[in-house]
Amino acid sequence: MVDELQSAACFIRVNDPGSAIAKIAQRFVGDEVRFKPGIHPTAIIGENVRLGNDVVVRPYVVIEDGASIGSNTVIYPHVYVGHSSELGTNCLIYANVSIRERIKIGNNVIIHNGAVIGSDGFGFTTINGVHHKIPQLGTVEVEDDVEIGANVTIDRARFDKTHIGKGTKIDNLVQIAHNVWIGERCVIVGQSGIAGSSRIGNNVVLAAQAGVDGHLEIGDNAVITGRAGVTKSIPSNAKVSGFPAQNHDKQRREHIYLRKLPEYCAKIKDLEERLLKLEEAAENHRERG
Question: Rounded to whole angstroms, how far apart are CA atoms 213 and 193?
Fold first, then answer.
């Protein structure tokens, strides 16, 4: 029966099944939402704002003085674009996104709801027990083809720039601190955090809830597994896990040993009891002799 079904089945061979499924699924979803180009009457547009062709600005958007919006970019309701910030062409900015002043966003960038780009870096100095704010004078630069998930926060640099490389994809609820440099085509998964001034190479994967300490370097093609805590720099092509993060295979072996601790403790206790009996027997033998 199975052979009959297999011989009757139709197959479509493709090189990339994931892409093929995405195209097929789109046929069932229907046409994507499209808006007529133009500025909604409730939007507030500042002075000297430059708008490209066919830009869509939805209700209650605020675009401050000197900002620039590239052609075919769509800005959903309640988005804030700060003074002198630049958005490239074909961007999609969903509702309630905040893009602070002097931020540069490339082309084909997608930013999901609630993300904040360019918030102040967490910089303070403590004098006589009082925390004093250090001004964060830098910016954020997001290159082309980046996607930023919902409620992501990317802090502006203290002096220079926080950088997100071309083609990088950032999941929801990720924190990227000031002066961080992220290379191209990285994947940063939900609830990960990167502390200030760390540098992430190209094609790096940070799995869910991974944490990277400040002023570290993560080499190209490295994989940081879920919930790993990185406290020292990681070379290229490495795969690490655990806290503190170490070679993934070594950490797995240690984890297996930890799970077997009750078994090992029972064996050690048994061996101790048997050794004690042997010592007692030997002592009795010496006393009789």
Answer: 9
